[in-house]
Design brief:
about 325 residues; mainly alpha; 12 helices
């Protein structure tokens, strides 16, 4: 039996983050959460690479799609920063990364208005894309803007009802990827085939983006339940949330195989380059299964974001190889 003198020293607390000055550019960057933007640019990158593989790359439309996705992501982050603090879900002692409004670095009303400006800018770019590719795009675009605001704001926020995962999967997976491919391939003979591949890749990216959210919610569940924030992690409980994260990771790799059930192309091996990231996913799942909690989950969030980035870049590389082979062989 260990005596107090023999007991191993406890682990030192993590160092306090270095915070930017109030109302500075750094405070705004903190509020925009740049590390989360992989969920915005990854589907646009993949959707554009699919358009390239079908010889339908339109750079201006790809850039507009990227602007829309990033603006909605930043707008959602800003509204979340202000709204969660107003509801008491974020405090200065939160377990996750620091939040600008909770720490008094930015005024909540100003941050909320900035988030709405981001949504307005996304809407303007979306109007241009709709004029170029089809006015019906205004419907999913408007839904995405409303959902971005309603994620944590409004009378019944989606995140507080356990519906945040649906928003993330649909917009930062399916809509962002398929929409990016559609606005560039609309009107070509193989457009429907391109959309099929974009749907599979979009589902895969949606699963990984949802993993980011679910790890975040798993970490915050003990404090979320105290303020009535009934995220899916709160509703499922700890064990089932960890199981859900595992199956979301599996789903990302299964989704890439879906077009094989309908079509076969000789370039499928290139398109499956993303399978090289499986060891990274296995490591993340192992950490989750071993029971990491609280601040120990913050590094896991970074690992999942890197996984999605690598996954997207490898999928895109596969389609670029397909495009190159089509031109040179």
């Amino acid at each position: 039996m260990n005596t107090p003198a023999d007991a191993p020293p406890s682990a030192p607390p993590p160092p306090a983050p270095v915070l930017p000055p109030p109302n500075s550019l750094g405070a705004w960057i903190l509020a925009s959460r740049p590390k989360t933007l992989v969920a915005a640019w990854a589907p646009v990158l993949v959707g554009t690479s699919i358009a390239l593989a079908f010889d339908s790359l339109v750079i201006v439309r790809a850039l507009a799609a990227l602007f829309v996705a990033v603006a909605i992501q930043v707008g959602t982050n800003l509204v979340n920063d202000a709204a969660d603090h107003a509801r008491g879900a974020d405090t200065a002692g939160r377990l996750g990364p620091p939040r600008a409004v909770a720490l008094g670095l930015l005024d909540g009303d100003v941050v909320m208005k900035a988030g709405l400006v981001c949504f307005a800018l996304a809407g303007i770019a979306g109007l241009w894309l709709a004029a170029m590719a089809g006015w019906w795009l205004l419907v999913p675009g408007a839904i995405a803007l409303l959902a971005g605001y309603a994620y944590t704001a409004g009378p019944k926020p989606l995140a507080y009802l356990g519906l945040g995962e649906v928003f993330v999967f649909v917009f930062f997976g399916l809509i962002a990827t398929v929409g990016t491919t559609f606005v560039q391939t609309v009107g070509i003979n193989a457009g429907r085939v391109a959309i099929l591949f974009a749907t599979a890749a979009g589902a895969a990216l949606g699963f990984l983006a949802t993993v980011i959210l679910e790890v975040n919610n798993l970490r915050d569940a003990p404090t979320d339940v105290l303020v009535g924030k009934a995220t899916l992690a709160v509703r499922l409980g700890d064990a089932r949330t960890r199981g859900m994260i595992r199956w979301l990771c599996v789903g990302a790799y299964v989704a890439l195989l879906l077009p094989v059930a309908f079509l076969f192309y000789p370039w499928v091996p290139f398109w499956l380059l993303a399978y090289l990231t499986i060891p990274v996913a296995v490591g993340i799942v192992r950490t989750i299964r071993e029971g990491a909690t609280g601040r120990a989950l913050n590094p896991v969030l970074g690992r999942v974001a890197k996984l999605e980035a690598m996954f997207a870049m490898l999928v895109s590389l596969g389609y670029v190889i397909v495009w190159a082979l089509g031109r040179w062989i």
